[in-house]
Amino acid sequence: MAGLETNRPAKWMEGTGPYSDIVISSRIRLARNIHDLPFPHLVMESQFADILERLKPFVTNRTARSPAHRFIMHRLRDLPALDRQVLVEKHLISPQHARNAEHAAVILRGDEAVSILVNEEDHLRIQCLYPALQLDEAWHLGSNVDDLLERSLDYAFSPSRGYLTACPTNAGTGLRASVMLHLPALVMSNQAGRLYSDIVKLGFMVRGIYGEGTEALGNIFQFSNQVTLGRSEPEIVENLRTITERIIEQERAGRDTLLREMKSQLEDRVWRAYGILTNAHLLSSSEAVQLLSDVRLGRDLGLLKGLTSFGITEVLVITRPGYLQKLAGRALSAAERDVERARLVREKLKGPAT
User: Fold this and answer.
1) What pLDDT shows up at residue 168?
2) Model's pTM, two decimal places?
3) Nearest in space to 229 (alpha carbons), one of 178, 176, 156
4) Other C-beta atoms within 10 Å of 317: how many?
5) Rounded Cα distance, 88 and 107, in Å
6) Can you tell me the mean pLDDT for 276-281?
């Protein structure tokens, strides 16, 4: 198992693609289990070693055009805690996976568009992450990876219930499709709460930036399907794309209203955020996320024209606690992280805005 380079941007952090002014990322996740082994919470060391052995053909037999498309397996217990934290911050593994590292692994494609969580809640969770609204592209890639894995694995499958999973809510297709959206106008106009209530009634889940039980920092929300049984994979993907496009319409209408009715207040908010970020010498993680949200909104509305190439999505991730320390090459106290975060943001924002 090769070493891990965690301090490079993942593909979904590129910040380009359809509706990239509102949609940060699209994710497809497929839950799969091996038919003759107990679910992960009952797996012993010898059985986990067997899982890794069965995955070797997939990892070692992959011929790729470039390093970006090759797969490498990493056993989590062999990774420093800081590397595991960075993987969480990049959405490549879950917090649960990082905590339960003893009998866990991750398989990463070179460009990190694919991450396969081994022995998390299920034996395999195949994740495909793309920037912006690219659900179809993520689904196509996930389906291909799933087919390749199935060449050497016999999945737990029931003709009547579909793919069998540790949690019954994931049975059937085993597919969770999700999008991460930046929705400042809906939050600022107090429309977000009603919208999210309506979406839940339609069978979708709303979560914070790092999934279940996390806050919607920086006006960023995740939306995903609740039902995996009784619907086909294309239907699940299409339903989420449809609801996402409706949310985009509402967010854009909200932004138009803000520009029309509150332009001066909006410009003041955006430029204050930009001023703090370009001059601050101390920035907490939560403050940086909120200020970057305001700057992102200003850039996307044309109020900060000089920032068209500024990678705000990347900065949101690299200013997280683990990533900061990884870039610094050493452990940092909370106070040191605030200093380093401010320095890094100043450096990234040094291009002139107009």
Assistant:
1) 84
2) 0.91
3) 176
4) 18
5) 14
6) 96
b vs e for 289-300, b when ≥16 Cβ sit within 10 Å of the residue's Cβ? bbbbbbbbbbbb
Query: If 0-12 CB within 10 Å is exposed, 13-18 middle and 19+ buried, where does residue 15 land?
Result: buried
**Token pair 């990876």 in the structure block, residue:** 145
Q: Report residue 351 as tokens.
A: 């291009």
Tokens of 14: 């590129």
Structure tokens at 277: 């970020």
Q: Domains along the chain?
A: 11-253 (3.30.590.10), 263-348 (no CATH)
Phi-psi region for residue 288, left (φ > 0), alpha (ψ -120 to 50) or beta?
alpha
pLDDT in tens, 22-75: 999 999 999 999 999 999 888 888 999 999 999 998 998 655 557 778 899 999
Instruction: Please identify which residue in the block is written with the tokens 């797996």.
Output: 43
Task: Give start and end residues of each alpha helix (H) in the chain.
Answer: 45-60, 81-89, 95-99, 135-150, 184-188, 192-201, 233-261, 263-279, 285-300, 312-318, 321-328, 334-348
CA atoms within 13 A on the CB side of 14: 15
Joined together, the tokens standing for residue 348 give: 């990234």
Instruction: Report the sign of the C-alpha dihedral through residues 54, 55, 60, 63, in that order.
Output: positive
CA distance 184 to 249: 13
Task: Please say if the pLDDT value at position 261 is more than 50.
Answer: yes
* Residue 228, CB-side half-sphere exposure with 13 Å CA sphere: 23
CB contact at 8 A, 71 and 62:
yes
What DSSP state is assigned to residue 153? -
8 A C-beta contact, residue 229 and residue 162: yes
CA distance 235 to 225: 11
Query: How far apart, in whole angstroms, are the C-alpha atoms of residue 254 and residue 271?
Result: 19
Instruction: Note the pLDDT of residue 218.
Output: 87
- Residues 6 or more apart whose Cβ sits within 8 Å of residue 143: 233
Token duo for residue 16 = 């380009």
Q: Work out the pLDDT band at 309, boundaries 50, 70, 90.
A: low
